[in-house]
Specification:
- By secondary structure, the protein is mainly β.
- It has 2 domains: 47 residues, no CATH class; 99 residues, OB fold (Dihydrolipoamide Acetyltransferase, E2P), CATH 2.40.50.
- Helix content is 8%, strand content 39%.
- The chain has 1 helix and 14 strands.
- Strand 10 and strand 11 form a beta hairpin.
- The longest helix is centred in the first third of the chain and has 13 residues.
- It is elongated and about 60 Å long.
Amino acid sequence: MDIRKIKKLIEMLEESQLNEIEISEGEESIRLSRGSTPYTSSAGPGVFATPAPLPAVPPVYIPDETGVTITEPAKTSDEAGAVFSPMVGTFYASPNPESKPYVEIGSSVNVGDTLCMIEAMKIFNHVEAEVSGVIRKILKHSGDPIEYGEALFVIDEDSA
């Protein structure tokens, strides 16, 4: 892959809101990612790739009785009752900025209730509850970028 092409890709990444670009030409490929340290790939000399990102532990926002939001570290995404992102995109808690969120901490949800929307490639996809229960944690804010498999909510399941 030509160094001029790589420089052009870097410029495109810097000018866009993208976090990552991956291009393949024949047997050569390159992946550019913001905020990661590159390393040489086994694909060949001069080809760089970024390591898979480590799972981030997002903050959990819990309103207290005074209405002030406090932040505490989240448990691992393996936590029971966690709802994971089915795709890469942008998280939206409500249908539009003026609307009330689909769910809030303490909200009761049933199977099939909309929890949030994820915008991916200009298409809005609803994320629905797969269990009935109570929302205990909301791990993202509207407008946050999200990755596939990233924890979005924690639901305490109703005991049946």
